[in-house]
């Protein structure tokens, strides 16, 4: 029997397959008979007693492989209770904790495979009977990422801040390392048994640092970013909070502040940004209350979000949607009309640049709606649609047209910011300006240069030119 498993904190879902390849002495029928007998005759009598005790907010960690019961507080010995907990996991009746995933993986004996299946159950049964000895656990499960919502940073004082994580901010007794992305300065502290910590750190207003959590086995969680002071701000200016619309989509605009390269999304859709403003068209709405979540994220991973609750009461009769709402001059945009009114379209008037003059008019509902913007700016393309009954519908799209110079400045800023961080050996911060797929490639390169890193960076020169298309 094989239950798919992914060591990510829960048994992977999927079908159950009988197999006897790992243990030739047991055929598929024997596996099935063993499990059904255990499930039908033993499990109902004892499960309530000690197997379904759910883990609470804390879990007693031990180094004994196969020790799963009682759940939440393993007793340090191997018994039939541990076998039955593993059976519940394999049948998908309980969700294992990370510690249970680690302790339950006992097969093949001496060379565990990172999967939970019938082989683990057979080996654990033999261990309970004293027929085999299980080797010590090899912990390869990283601790949880630091919970930045539970981490506070004091105002800087003489270049120093106090960083405090409240209870549960990191794994109990973990090693917590802070890394200043701009200066490369580090500080390391051991968390308390309740997952809290407190340490001083060299940082100033506007800087961002990483919080890296490592456990006793050397496993590290993905770094979490924390800012000093108000590094990011984000405000939704339209639509207002709590409004009701007779439409099934809404456009969202707002303002933000943050370092170069800060991006904004609304319900996962990337917004057009220009200066400190953002725009996104046609966010879908479901009937009833909807939550719009706008999120600003800077290159170092620090993010801030704000929400709006919007209630939708009807489907929009006629909508217009731009295929590419933002781009670089000259910028060609096609507009797609969707008619949900139930009436035939009689006429379409389009004011593509929003100056009050009709740029295009057609009586054909299938007419091509397209425009090429030859100057930079923020345009409100407006459309007036008439149907055969005389009904009139007004709709608009925000179009953002940027100069290639702005893209050039952004890219140069990314490159120069990376070099500035490398000059002070702030490698973790410099890597944030590279795509994740190549960060692991360049990390050892930067680290191997050690004290020569600054000299090498100074020889790289500046960007002399480029092509944007």
The share of residues in helices is: 10-25%
The tally of strands reads 26
The best one-word shape is globular
Beta-strand fraction estimate: 25-35%
Number of helices: 8
Give, in spatial order, the strands making up the sheet with the most strands: 11-18-17-13-14
The secondary-structure class comes to alpha+beta
What gap, in angstroms, lies between the N and C termini?
Answer: 55 Å
Gyration radius (Cα, Å) is 30 Å
Given as residue ranges, the uncertain stretches (5+ residues, pLDDT < 50) are: 1-60
The biggest beta sheet reads:
5 strands, mixed
Mean pLDDT: 86
Topology readout:
Blueprint: E1 2-3, E2 16-17, H1 28-51, H2 80-90, H3 98-104, H4 118-128, E3 151-153, E4 160-165, E5 175-180, E6 186-190, E7 197-202, E8 208-214, E9 224-227, E10 233-238, E11 244-245, E12 249-257, E13 263-266, E14 269-270, E15 272-274, E16 277-284, E17 288-297, E18 303-312, E19 318-322, E20 326-328, E21 331-339, E22 345-351, E23 360-362, E24 369-373, E25 377-387, E26 392-402, H5 404-423, H6 427-431, H7 436-449, H8 453-458
Parallel strand pairs: 11-18, 20-26
Antiparallel strand pairs: 1-2, 3-4, 4-7, 5-6, 5-8, 8-9, 10-12, 12-16, 13-14, 13-17, 15-16, 17-18, 19-21, 21-24, 22-23, 22-25, 25-26
Helix pairs in contact: 1-2, 2-4
């Amino acid at each position: 029997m094989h239950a798919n498993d992914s060591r990510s904190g829960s048994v992977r879902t999927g079908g159950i397959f009988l197999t006897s390849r790992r243990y030739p002495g047991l055929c598929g029928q024997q596996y099935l008979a063993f499990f059904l007998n255990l499930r039908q005759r033993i499990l109902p009598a004892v499960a309530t007693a000690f197997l379904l005790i759910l883990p609470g907010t804390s879990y007693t960690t031990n180094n004994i492989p196969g020790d799963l019961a009682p759940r939440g507080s393993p007793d340090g010995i191997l018994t039939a209770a541990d076998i039955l907990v593993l059976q519940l996991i394999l049948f998908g009746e309980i969700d294992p904790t990370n510690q249970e995933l680690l302790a339950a993986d006992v097969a093949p004996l001496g060379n565990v495979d990172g999967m939970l299946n019938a082989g683990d159950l057979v080996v654990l049964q033999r261990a309970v009977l004293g027929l085999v000895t299980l080797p010590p656990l090899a912990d390869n499960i990283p601790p949880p990422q630091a919970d930045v919502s539970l981490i506070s940073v004091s105002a800087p004082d003489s270049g120093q801040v106090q960083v405090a994580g409240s209870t549960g901010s990191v794994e109990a007794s973990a090693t917590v390392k802070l890394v200043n992305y701009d200066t490369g300065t580090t500080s390391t502290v051991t968390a308390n048994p309740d997952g809290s910590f407190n340490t001083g750190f060299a940082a100033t207003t506007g800087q961002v640092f990483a919080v890296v959590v490592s456990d006793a086995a050397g496993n590290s969680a993905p770094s979490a970013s924390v800012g000093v002071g108000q590094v990011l701000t984000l405000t939704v200016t339209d639509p207002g909070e709590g409004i009701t619309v007779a439409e099934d989509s809404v456009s969202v605009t707002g303002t933000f502040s943050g370092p170069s390269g800060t991006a904004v999304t609304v319900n996962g859709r990337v917004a057009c940004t220009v200066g400190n403003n953002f725009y996104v068209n046609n966010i879908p709405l479901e009937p009833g209350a909807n939550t719009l979540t706008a999120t600003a994220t800077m290159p170092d991973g620090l993010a801030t979000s704000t929400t709006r609750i919007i209630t939708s009461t009807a489907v929009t009769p006629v909508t217009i949607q731009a295929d590419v709402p933002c781009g670089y001059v000259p910028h060609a945009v096609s507009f797609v009309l969707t008619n949900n009114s139930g009436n035939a379209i009689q006429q379409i008037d389009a004011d593509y640049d929003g100056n009050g003059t009709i740029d295009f008019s057609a009586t054909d509902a299938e007419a091509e709606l397209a425009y090429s913007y030859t100057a930079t700016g923020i345009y409100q393309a407006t459309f007036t649609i008439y149907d055969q009954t005389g009904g009139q519908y007004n709709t608009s799209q925000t179009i953002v047209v940027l100069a290639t110079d702005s893209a050039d400045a952004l890219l140069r800023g990314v490159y120069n910011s990376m070099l500035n961080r490398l000059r002070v050996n702030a490698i973790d911060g410099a890597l944030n300006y590279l795509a994740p797929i190549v960060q692991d490639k360049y990390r050892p390169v930067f680290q191997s240069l050690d004290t020569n890193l600054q000299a090498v960076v100074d020889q790289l020169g500046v960007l002399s030119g480029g092509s944007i298309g």
